[in-house]
Amino acid sequence: MDEVNFIFEPRTVLLIGSSKMREKVGMASPQLFNNVTNNMRKYYSGKTLVFDTHRKGHKADLMQVGENADLAIIMLPAKESIPICEECAKIGIRALLIITGGYTEDQRAKLLGIKRKYKTRILGPNTIMGVINTSNGLNTTFEKNIMPKKGNIAVISQSGGVGAYLLDWACFFEVGISKFCFVGDKIDINDVELLRYLGRDDQTGVICIYVEGIKDGRNFIEEARKISKIKPILVLKGGITQESAHRAKSHTASIAGSDAIFDAAFKKAGMIRVENIEELMNAAVTLSKQPPMQGDNVAIVSNVGGPAILAADAVSRNCLALASLSKETKRKIENRYPGVDATNPIDMIADAKGERYSEVLSLVLADKNVDGVMIINMLKSTFFEPKDAKVIPKVASKYPNKPVVDVPAGGEDFVKLHRVLGKTSVPLFNLPEKAARALKVLRIYSQIVKKH
Amino acid sequence: MDEVNFIFEPRTVLLIGSSKMREKVGMASPQLFNNVTNNMRKYYSGKTLVFDTHRKGHKADLMQVGENADLAIIMLPAKESIPICEECAKIGIRALLIITGGYTEDQRAKLLGIKRKYKTRILGPNTIMGVINTSNGLNTTFEKNIMPKKGNIAVISQSGGVGAYLLDWACFFEVGISKFCFVGDKIDINDVELLRYLGRDDQTGVICIYVEGIKDGRNFIEEARKISKIKPILVLKGGITQESAHRAKSHTASIAGSDAIFDAAFKKAGMIRVENIEELMNAAVTLSKQPPMQGDNVAIVSNVGGPAILAADAVSRNCLALASLSKETKRKIENRYPGVDATNPIDMIADAKGERYSEVLSLVLADKNVDGVMIINMLKSTFFEPKDAKVIPKVASKYPNKPVVDVPAGGEDFVKLHRVLGKTSVPLFNLPEKAARALKVLRIYSQIVKKH
Fold first, then answer.
1. Which residues in chain A have Cβ-Cβ distances shorter than 8 Å to B307?
2. Quick check: A254 contacting B, CB < 8 Å?
3. Which of residues 40-79 of B touch A (CB under 8 A)?
4. How many CB atoms lie within 10 A of CB A2?
5. Using a CB-CB distance cutoff of 8 angstroms, which residues of chain A are in contact with residue B167?
6. N or C end of chain A, less CB within 10 A?
7. Per-residue pLDDT, B57
8. Cβ of A216 under 8 Å from any chain B Cβ?
9. What is the distance between the alpha carbons of residues A49 and A29, in angstroms, rounded to a whole number?
10. Is A275 on the interface with B (CB under 8 A)?
11. Does the beta carbon of A343 lie under 8 angstroms from any beta carbon of chain B?
């Protein structure tokens, strides 16, 4: 068994912190210790043991408390954590997940010494929020009552802040998550091993990575190259300029190379690069719900004119093409719905309800000139009602090789449509531009699968 | 008095529709008539008269009902509307706002004939939602209970759908609106006159325009050029490609030229071009709340590392610069908060609360090397609480010539911070990239004001 498994799938977890010690820079505090303990008790389906180094009344004995644990979660200040880490290793705990930060070079060296001597693996230090596994409820974050919905998207974040940002996004928009991993300073377990683990993980279908720098770049690329044939890997890179790269270096002690080098490496590895957190989450949801797009030709099916034009612009900006519908498809649509001009982007007019969406979407998806569809369904200024949207995933499921994405207007309309479509296979976006970008990602992934 | 005034500031409005007639393509229906009537009764502070062409019991007499009206809202099918429009003109109604669409060339010519004969001005046809004026409550939309918050942003939309999209966005995110105008087919009142009206309108501080094509381009550019010195004009153009431009032509009967020509014209006019609806709304809110940015140098003040690095990347991508803080500023921050490295982007560490935000933001805004500030305040993974954000608008108001924008994480955190900061002068964004773009717009506007 790969030792990284113990990080995500331990049988028994030992939580180690102090009900007294507080250390600002490294984030150690009784409150953090308490919150993590509460989250573990609330969500984790395995066994949780707790070791408080400052427990009142009697001196605690780590060996007695933790001898059956295979993973220890360390929430102590750097200095105090070193002897405790060694004790953990001595009693046979297989992996250490170090939440706290602020370790000096010397302290890191000591941690690595422990690893070498006892073969105990280390994630961190400075992971801040540690890991989440939605399958077994493992949750070492210190945010109260935070647990993302179960799903097949895995996230690896080098930064605690960016990880927390992604977690906030995933929880709020109900993005389905398999694993969440805050890697921190990566003194031992690195991106390569995490990637390999997620590549083999049956619960994971899409992998998202936030990196500032990569250690062991050659192996990382090799591993990613193998995995990206089977499941898509999305990457967001922080520190693209000299100045921000300098800050990244001091932030997570990683060696940041030139951005162009990273870009070439990601391409070689079959990874899909995104530009920001929203795009990362949107792309992940789309890849987890919809098939790769086998060609460039997008049809737009809308109940309003202007937003359909903006959608067509966005398709062009993403170097995709507006599909030329076959004469047959056009004829069928126009015969059935007099007044509708079935030129792509198709404006089905403001009185289109579920029936018209269903019919036109079916005809368009059946057209061999169409590789994917963007639907626009405005509520305001039209007769469309949220329940009319129920036909969309039904029709889409009949054409499993052609992606369908949906765009309601961006405010109240989005919230209303999200209630109807949020849990279905059709991803929702609050702007045509975001939907076009999502289709582009599906196109890129089909090319990656073919090429590699 | 400019006749366009009657469109936005009538004393007495006559609503004309039919409780029987329904016509699909043009959107005429008893329901639409009823909804507009309800909205006008609910919101409008002036006098509302109603004329139903199919009122039961007795033949209605337009002259009796409407003789004191100065604006008529036409909600009849094209054919039936022509004689009614002429009657309105005859009895001295100064302006007609035609909601319904589907007019033939011949019918449009007849409307223009009425205009010439009686000097009655016409907005539309095919305006779909007509106008909103938040000062007097005029609201000719047919959406139930939709009224944006009062503010100083005006919107002109050539497309009903895009207008409805913007309205949905504005209502949901509580964007302060002065006037909302759906221009439709523009057979008479055109962009030039609307722009002139909004340029003079005291309630309007920022003008947003969605266009697919422009009539009378030379005058439009001239008018915009004059206004953009005094208030910013944002423009979103639909139909940037050959294909989508073709669709735009059939959609609102406008002549769409090459996109590069539009781009040059907008620049010449001092208009700021945006790429999508979200950017349009974000830019408008930012310009309505914050001063133009007088230089390129942005400081980032954050309680987390990773998102601050992404923010620095976004600053670079927008061709702005990371400010080099003076030695004095750095020394003061680092002396006061040991452990904080005051290199821009400044990571104030996860335990920063209101006090530290207040102190560091003051020092940074006082630094002559800084032209504007992006604040990042994550809640998750930190000790920051929503109420801590109250210091931000307070400190920002002491430096009225330097813009400050704020970025919480994008999901639940955003909602929580929006409750605290939404009504203040500090605009909020759910991604550093959007905040950087907003600062760029403030920079562009300061250059427009200087140049013209």
1. 159, 161-162, 165
2. no
3. none
4. 11
5. 380
6. N
7. 61
8. no
9. 18
10. yes
11. yes
β-sheet bridge partners, residue A179: A133
pLDDT digits (tens, 9 = 90+) for B134-164: 999 999 999 888 999 999 999 999 988 999 9
Q: Which of B24, B309, B353 to mutate: most A Cβ within 10 Å?
A: B309
Distance CA A327, CA A124 (A): 60
Cβ neighbours of residue B205 under 8 Å, at least 6 residues apart? B152, B153, B178, B231, B287, B288
Angstrom CA distances, B320 to A276, B373, B437, stand at 18, 12, 10
Q: What is the pLDDT of residues B164-206, one digit of tens each?
A: 999 999 999 999 999 999 998 899 999 999 999 999 999 999 9
Residues of A in contact with B172 (CB under 8 A): 410-412, 415
Name the residue facing B164 among A381, A431, A432 (closest C-beta). A381
Which residues, in sequence order, are bridge partners of residue B139?
B132
* Two tokens, residue A323: 């599909």
A114-134 burial, b at 16+ Cβ within 10 Å, e below that, comes to bbeebebbbbbbbbbbbbbbb
ipTM: 0.93
- pLDDT for A336 beyond 70: yes
Work out how many CB contacts closer than 8 A connect A with B. Answer: 265
Closest CA to B284 of B143, B441, B433: B441
Question: Can you name the residues that pair with A71 across neighbouring β-strands?
Answer: A13, A95
Q: In 3D, which of B161, B171, B178 has the Cα closest to residue B8? A: B178
DSSP β-bridge partners for residue A346:
A301
B167 to chain A, any CB pair closer than 8 A? The answer is yes
Closest chain A CA to residue B280: A431
Of A143, A159, A345, the CB nearest to B247: A345
**Which residues between 384 and 413 in chain A have a beta carbon less than 8 angstroms from any beta carbon of chain B?**
409-413
Question: How many CB atoms are closer than 10 A to CB A353?
Answer: 16
Q: Select from A98, A194, A161, A418 the least CA-distant residue to B311.
A: A161
In tens, the pLDDT along A88-116 reads: 999 999 999 999 999 999 999 999 999 99
Helices and strands: H and E segment counts in chain A: 17, 17
What are the start-end ranges of the E strands in B75-129?
A: 95-98, 121-123
3-state secondary structure of B12: strand
CB proximity A324 to B under 8 Å: no
Q: Yes or no: say if B133 and B6 are a contact pair by the CB < 8 Å rule.
A: no
Q: Do A307 and B161 touch (CB under 8 A)?
A: yes
What type of residue sits at position A353? K
- H or E segment to which residue B289 belongs: helix B277-289
- For CA atoms B187, B189, B195, B196, the dihedral sign is positive
Listed in sequence order, the residues at least 6 apart from A420 whose beta carbon sits closer than 8 Å to its beta carbon are A386, A387, A389, A390
Q: Is A366 on the interface with B (CB under 8 A)?
A: no
Using 50, 70 and 90 to split pLDDT, how confident is the model at A163? Answer: very high
Q: Mutate which of B275, B341, B381 to disrupt the A interface (most A C-beta within 10 Å)?
A: B381
B120: buried, middle or exposed (CB in 10 Å: 19+, 13-18, 0-12)? buried
Average of pLDDT values for A232-244?
Answer: 87
- Which chain B residues are Cβ-neighbours of A306 within 8 angstroms? 157-163, 165, 210, 212, 238, 251-252
Cβ atoms of B154 and B180 closer than 8 Å: yes
Q: Both tokens of residue B397? A: 């108001």
pLDDT of residue B255: 47
> In B340-431, which residue ranges form alpha helices assigned H by DSSP?
354-366, 391-397, 412-421
How is residue B336 written in tokens?
């006061």
Give one DSSP letter per residue of B186-199, joined into a string: -SSS-HHHHHHHHH
